[in-house]
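Hello Y.,

Per our agreement to keep a running log of every chain we model this quarter, I'm adding this entry. I've kept the format consistent with earlier entries: sequence first, then predicted structure.
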Amino acid sequence: MKKKFSAELAYVLGILFVAFGVVLMEKADFGVSMVVAPAYLLYRWLSPVWGFFTFGMAEYCLQAALLLVMVLIVHRFRMSYLFSFVTAVIYGFVLDGFMAAGTILPADTIWQRVIYYILGMLFCSAGVSAMFHTYISPEVYELFVKEVSARFHININKFKTVYDCTSCLTGILLSFLAFGFWHFEGVKWGTVFCALINGWIIGRFSAFYEKHWLFYDRFPWRKYFEKMC
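Predicted structure for the entry above:
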């Protein structure tokens, strides 16, 4: 028998898991997740010039631009889309907090870095899947995949893989533009590997969640989000 799991808690855990996973992958230095690679490179490029510019700020600035692109692709606008930007801002603050805490993690050996990389990828995938199981507007990254795949009737896990690979290529291009040709910063073999299997891992987490848990509304907030749709 399935156990009940709060959709609101899935939202909170989704943000925490993704932010923590990104920090672990950044600490491993094998390449960050392809989804956040463009924002990470923007952060690495601008933070030496603007000391106040954080990784989290780069995230929600880039997601604001992605939200605009999504609206143009699906040819519609919903008020719930704006809450996705709110989610992106919340995620940005959580990410900056984890980035500060992550400075105490040792990364002196290759095995420590490998562990960080594997755990980081798993946390990111688990968090994204959790966000797919809540009615609360997810980050723009997940919203883009969800809305565009639904608009064109594409399998969401397959489309996620295509989206991840596109983000990976974008990150490589930004790395070349910001740090010079053949100088990979933030986008490395780990980014490419993650792009190829991340969609599959998310699918496995989704299957696990749906097998063991029944997601339900703990609070009467769904109707407010449905009104925004």
